[in-house]
């Protein structure tokens, strides 16, 4: 297979490879609305090494998308307040003008959007949409850009790429379109790729293909990926680390295996519980998390998750747990972590009382039966 | 894993899912032919007649001399003396100066086409740029532009055009060209807020689409995004309102001429508007035929433009619903 090398990521001679590619510290994003200030992202910190994938998981409205857009600097300028520090290869991004950010967009970092139906321009041919950034950023001549586009389409697994270049987005299926979107994002060889729920709009078989594709491309290009999703299953076998987000904060962050093996935060547990298992008896009720995500204009005084948590004690309602690590690399924000003695006692007390300290009815979780 | 093997696997997956992509492509092709069919069906006989008529008007405007009627400025004193009416050779009869009206109507196409096309082009460029900027950048710029549009729209169009035309092109020693330009610009300025608002509304919705953010995330500059991403999507809406706008411009030119500030009704400067303005006085004096010609031309032209404008709009509505 004839394959062109498309600008690979190589550490520049003076680049300090010891520091992480992306270092995020205490990022806070809030929107000023008529109803009040919405703290969509509330003090998020993490680091991402080169060539690694970080999965950010959380339910709708937990601030995942706002976080990824905050990091990229893609939020609208009005009514947004953003503080903290986002360092890309040691260079601070927050506070940079749009003009300065443009030097990083597409070249250093790119984004794959959720819905391939709306993230391609319906009136422009595929070929032009891909070559545009090549010609603009890398100043490639027309022929070379076209060849690179062909190679890109091939690398994202699109059959008869030469013909596709001449087609419009509406002539392709959803899965094909998402491959195109990925090809466009990868065109200039970014070091960091944000994928904001890249498979939500696709059906399940295509989802797997797209995720495998992303994983392969990532390994091939030694690229860092931030994979945002609401589906723990999506990141399970693919991310190196997983960060669980709730109400604009990180509640747990750990290497993938560790997170699934010994999750500490009740929210992570509840998320996992809510995924139906193959070995469940037929007609098993889906486990749901009671209540709804917190109001981010007036968040709860203590832990954001306390009102919905099976483990919640009086302390959780007044005091906010900090994100701490017990083993290196595994951080969580909870006073009564799952699997610890405190946690077991808290749950037992709540089950005995029939409700948590916040008044939410508590029954024995399904897991405890087995 | 070697590349080829990985590829084989993908193929196997594709085969296992029942060749989904192939199926999808087929469906898309169907959808496409549906669009094409809808478009041609909608155009129909009326559509082609409208296009034919407008093409004829365009030819008349460019080369009026090829039509088998007299020269412009010729006066047939004989006919005037005999009080000749409508005949096959002179389908619209003569005016009170003895000029063949068919000739004058045909030569009048040029002025009417220049005024309608010129004014709407002016409105399209200015209104389009303002509308795109206001819809894309929003914020304070948007408020200013929208308020300017609203103020302009608060003044009746004809009154505004009338004022502009009177101020800049009245009096006896004003040249024909100047009057033509002033009338064109007057109608053009009036059309700016109309076209601008349509453009802005369409820009607002298209700017929200993800592909615009995607373009931004790829490092495209604002002007590039506006021209490459937003404008092509907004054009259909602009095009359809352009056709309707031209129809309004033709009528406005007629209105200005009737009031007496349009293009003057000299022997060599006919326009549909001033032909009607001149013929109007003869209507009750036993020569109603004098306004029939230009009126029919205006009628069919406006009808054609409106009809095509609707077809264009319907066509793009279909496309959007299929998308």
Feature tags:
heterodimer, A: 370 residues, alpha/beta, eight-stranded mixed beta sheet, four-stranded antiparallel beta sheet, 13 helices, disordered N terminus, disordered C terminus, B: 323 residues, mainly alpha, MetI-like fold
Note the topology:
The complex is a heterodimer of chains A (370) and B (323).
Chain A: E1 22-33, E2 36-48, E3 53-57, H1 64-72, E4 80-88, E5 91-92, H2 98-101, E6 109-112, H3 126-137, H4 142-155, H5 161-164, H6 174-186, E7 192-196, H7 204-221, E8 224-229, H8 232-236, E9 241-246, E10 249-255, H9 256-261, H10 266-273, H11 314-318, E11 324-327, E12 330-332, H12 341-353, H13 366-369
Parallel strand pairs in A: 3-8, 3-9, 6-7, 7-8
Antiparallel strand pairs in A: 1-2, 1-4, 4-5, 9-10, 10-12, 11-12
Helix pairs in contact in A: 3-4, 4-6, 6-7
Chain B: H1 3-16, H2 20-62, H3 77-81, H4 101-137, H5 139-154, H6 157-168, H7 176-207, H8 210-217, H9 222-259, H10 272-283, H11 289-322
Helix pairs in contact in B: 2-4, 2-11, 4-5, 4-7, 4-9, 5-7, 6-7, 7-9, 8-9, 9-10, 9-11, 10-11
Kindly describe this structure.
The complex is a heterodimer of chains A (370) and B (323). Helices cover 31% and strands 21% of the residues of chain A. By secondary structure, chain A is α/β, with parallel strands linked by helices. Chain A has an 8-stranded mixed sheet with strand order 6-7-8-3-9-10-12-11. The N and C termini of chain A lie far apart (52 Å). In chain A, 46% of the residues are buried. Residues 1-14 and 366-370 of chain A have low confidence and may be disordered. Chain B is elongated and about 80 Å long. Chain B is built from 11 helices and no strands. Chain B has helices spanning 3-16, 20-62, 77-81, 101-137, 139-154, 157-168, 176-207, 210-217, 222-259, 272-283, 289-322. Chain B has one domain (39-72, 94-322): MetI-like (MetI-like fold, Orthogonal Bundle), CATH 1.10.3720.10. Chain B is mostly helical and 323 residues long. Helix content of chain B is 78%, strand content 0%. The longest helix of chain B has 43 residues, at 20-62. The interface between A and B is large, with 46 and 36 residues.
């Amino acid at each position: 297979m004839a394959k062109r090398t498309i600008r690979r990521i190589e550490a520049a001679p003076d680049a300090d490879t010891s520091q992480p590619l992306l270092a995020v510290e205490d990022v806070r994003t809030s929107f000023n609305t008529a109803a009040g200030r919405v703290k969509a992202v509330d003090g998020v910190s993490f680091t991402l090494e080169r060539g690694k994938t970080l999965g950010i998981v959380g339910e709708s409205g937990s601030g995942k998308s706002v976080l990824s857009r905050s990091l990229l600097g893609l939020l609208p300028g009005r009514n947004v307040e953003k503080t903290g520090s986002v360092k890309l290869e040691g260079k601070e991004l927050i506070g940079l003008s749009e003009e300065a950010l443009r030097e990083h967009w597409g070249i250093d970092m790119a984004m794959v959007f959720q819905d391939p139906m709306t993230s391609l321009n319906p009136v422009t041919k595929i070929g032009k949409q891909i070559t545009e950034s090549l010609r603009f950023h890398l100043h490639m001549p027309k022929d070379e850009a076209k060849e690179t586009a062909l190679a890109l389409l091939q690398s994202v697994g699109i059959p008869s790429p030469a013909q596709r270049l001449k087609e419009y987005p509406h002539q392709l299926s959803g899965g094909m379109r998402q491959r195109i979107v990925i090809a466009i994002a990868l065109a200039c060889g970014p070091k960091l790729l944000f994928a904001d729920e890249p498979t939500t709009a696709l059906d399940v078989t295509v989802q797997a293909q797209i995720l495998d594709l992303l994983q392969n491309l990532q390994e091939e290009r030694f690229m860092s990926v931030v994979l945002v999703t609401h589906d723990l299953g999506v990141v399970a076998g693919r991310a190196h680390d997983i960060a669980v987000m709730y109400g604009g904060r990180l509640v747990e962050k750990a290497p993938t295996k560790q997170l699934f093996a010994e999750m500490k935060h009740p929210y992570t547990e509840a998320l996992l519980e809510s995924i139906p298992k193959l070995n469940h008896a037929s007609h098993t009720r889906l486990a749901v998390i009671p209540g709804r995500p917190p109001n981010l204009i007036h968040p709860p005084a203590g832990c954001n998750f306390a009102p919905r948590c099976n483990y919640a004690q009086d302390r959780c309602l007044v005091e906010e747990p900090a994100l701490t690590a017990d083993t290196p690399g595994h951080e969580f924000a909870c006073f009564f972590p799952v699997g610890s003695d405190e946690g077991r006692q808290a749950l037992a007390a709540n089950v005995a009382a029939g409700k948590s300290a916040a008044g939410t009815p508590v029954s024995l979780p399904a897991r405890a039966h087995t | 894993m070697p590349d080829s093997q990985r590829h084989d696997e993908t193929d196997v997956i594709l085969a296992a899912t029942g060749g989904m992509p192939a199926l999808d492509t087929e469906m898309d092709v169907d959808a496409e032919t549906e669009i094409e069919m809808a478009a041609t069906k909608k155009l129909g006989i009326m559509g082609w007649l409208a296009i034919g008529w407008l093409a004829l008007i365009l030819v008349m405007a460019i080369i009026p001399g090829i039509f088998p009627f007299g020269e412009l400025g010729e006066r047939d004193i004989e006919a005037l003396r005999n009080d000749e009416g409508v005949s096959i050779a002179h389908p619209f009869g003569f005016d009170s100066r003895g000029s063949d009206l068919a000739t004058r109507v045909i030569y009048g196409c040029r002025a009417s086409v220049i005024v309608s096309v010129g004014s709407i082009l002016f409105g399209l460029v200015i209104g389009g740029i303002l509308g795109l900027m206001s819809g894309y950048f929003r914020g304070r710029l948007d408020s200013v532009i929208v308020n300017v549009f609203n103020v302009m729209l608060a003044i009746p169009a004809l009154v505004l055009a009338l004022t502009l035309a009177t101020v800049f092109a009245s009096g006896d020693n004003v040249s024909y060209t100047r009057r033509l330009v002033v009338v064109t610009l007057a109608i053009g300025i009036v059309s700016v807020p109309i076209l601008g608002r349509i453009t802005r509304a369409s820009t607002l919705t298209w700017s929200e689409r993800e592909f615009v953010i995607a373009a931004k995330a790829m490092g495209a500059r604002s002007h590039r995004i506006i021209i490459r991403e937003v404008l092509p999507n907004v054009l259909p809406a602009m095009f359809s309102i352009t056709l309707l706008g031209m129809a309004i411009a033709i009528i406005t030119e007629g209105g200005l001429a009737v009031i007496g500030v349009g293009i003057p009704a000299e022997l060599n400067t006919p326009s549909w508007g001033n032909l009607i303005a001149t013929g109007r006085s003869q209507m009750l004096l036993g020569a109603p035929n004098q306004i029939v010609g230009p009126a029919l031309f205006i009628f069919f032209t406006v009808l054609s433009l409106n009809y095509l404008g609707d077809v264009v709009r319907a066509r793009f509505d279909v496309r959007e619903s299929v998308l």
